Amino acid sequence: MDYDVIIIGAGPGGIFAAYELKKKSPALKVAVFESGHRLEDRKCPIDGVKIKNCVHCKSCSIMSGFGGAGAFSDGKYNITNDFGGTLYEHIGKDEALSLMKYVDTINLEHGGEGTKLYSTTNTNLKKICLQNKLQLLDASVRHLGTDINYIVLKEIYSELESKVDFFFMTPVDSITRTSGGFEIHTADKTYTCGKCIISVGRIGSKWMERICNDLDIPTRSNRVDIGVRVELPAVLFAHLTDELYESKIVYRTEKFEDKVRTFCMNPYGSVVTENTNGIVTVNGHSFEDPKKRTDNTNFALLVAKHFSEPFKDSNGYGESIARLSNMLGGGVIVQRFGDIIRGRRSTAKRIGENFVVPTLQAEPGDLSLVLPKRIMDGILEMIYALDKIAPGTANDDTLLYGVEVKFYNMEVDVNENLETRYPGLYIIGDGSGVTHSLSHASASGVYVAQQIIDSD
Ligand SMILES: Cc1cc2nc3c(=O)[nH]c(=O)nc-3n(C[C@H](O)[C@H](O)[C@H](O)COP(=O)(O)OP(=O)(O)OC[C@H]3O[C@@H](n4cnc5c(N)ncnc54)[C@H](O)[C@@H]3O)c2cc1C
Questions:
Q1: Which of 101, 231, 300, 377 could form a cystine bridge with 263, CB 3.0-4.6 A?
Q2: Is the pLDDT of residue 433 over 80?
Q3: Which residues are 118's β-sheet partners?
Q4: Pocket flag, ligand 1, residue 65 (CB < 6 Å)
């Protein structure tokens, strides 16, 4: 065997698997294959001046490379079983929470010390939410911020660099089984290993689907979340964000009884674009460093869409809606809440005169031409509900960017060890469909590493 363990993907799942393997069993020969760049070479060419829109790089530096999709994220590690994935369904709630806390200690040891841990325990905001038909989910949130998150990744990489063989810009093409393990095929060469951990994230979803087909690994898929990113003056949400940083609030619409939730809240942050397989959607982040803060807070409002048989392509549905916004706006569309309510598009003039200054240069337009009515109605209902706990949310000047789509990878059939039907082949992180967050993906990496060490 070339390696005891090969890890595919250097996102949080892959990184924490490698970290734990080398920490607990230094003699193991471990390699990590990553289709993107090393951390310091990850640069998105969009500078807002010369290059304003996505130029579809061969490897997207926002989503790929050391650190995975999380590298330039807000670095919010949510320590909870209430959202961020269903890891607990496989490994149990106590184990999942304890691994997320363990990941937190590793982050603190690698540059994250001094960052704030927020918590919903004992907050009065829960009652205020309930009084207004909103539910605040329980969580502790470690906010590293984009800047500290980068430092943590840099420190972990420098610790692993000499112990693990990293192959950057080396996408794995396929995997075949051998009598004693697996063959990992890249464009130039084939490598052998006893055990293989796949952690390819959201960007690897299509690849994962192909591998599951090739290896006859069962999968399920029926959910996509669609919505917008809301941007408003940070002071309007300060009573929530100062205490909780990120509040996950759920609302059930009166019209359709759909669930709408807040997602990825970025106090004093910026709205950014995201490229998934060539489709430009919207996201957000913020910095821990007060000097890099803006006057705005942004968060997503997402409507969960579950499909029933015979429809199977939930991600395809989300992609089509995102494509529609790309077709109309060349990328992300921005619209004032007041314009939506008046049934008119936003124009450059109206955005220019708006009290809330957008942090992302997006095309002023009409989101009602993009989002299905049911989803749009859910978002508007939720904005009015939030207006009761954070007055001003439903102001005319509130900005809505679209579309934000949360693609869920199909859920791969893995057992309580996160192992497929083939012993030694593990699928973890967002690519498995089991996790959807930094903390759950990282915890799944540690968990599988511990399973491998214990089984040796
Ligand atoms: C802008 C943004 C902000 C976010 N903010 C937060 C946040 O604040 N908090 C939070 O909890 N979550 C956040 N997320 C989500 C979070 O980043 C992911 O949940 C997390 O990164 C998943 O980790 P992962 O290891 O499973 O996959 P990823 O991080 O997606 O990493 C997978 C890696 O595998 C590589 N890969 C894919 N296919 C192959 C192949 N065939 N061969 C080799 N390599 C391959 C990819 O290049 C990638 O680097 C954010 C995401 C984005 C995009």
A1: 300
A2: yes
A3: 141
A4: yes
Atom of ligand 1 nearest to the CA of 431: 26
List, as one string, the DSSP characters of 263-277: EEEETT-EEEEEEET
Q: From ligand 1's centre to the CA of 23, what distance in Å?
A: 23
pLDDT recorded at residue 296: 97
Pocket lining: 4 vs ligand 1, CB cutoff 6 Å: no
182 within 8 A of 175, measured Cβ to Cβ: yes
Q: Which atom of ligand 1 is nearest to the CA of 428?
A: 26
pTM here?
Answer: 0.85
- Residue 433 Cβ < 6 Å to ligand 1: no
The response to whether residue 204 sits with its C-beta less than 6 Å from ligand 1 reads yes
Q: Which residue's alpha carbon is nearest to atom 19 within ligand 1?
A: 437
User: Hey, how many other C-beta atoms are within 10 angstroms of the C-beta on 173?
Assistant: 14
Q: Are 39 and 157 in contact (CB under 8 A)?
A: yes
Pairing of strands 270-276, 279-285: antiparallel
Higher pLDDT, residue 35 or 53: 35
Q: What is the pLDDT of residues 266-307, one digit of tens each?
A: 999 999 998 877 889 999 988 878 888 999 999 999 999 888
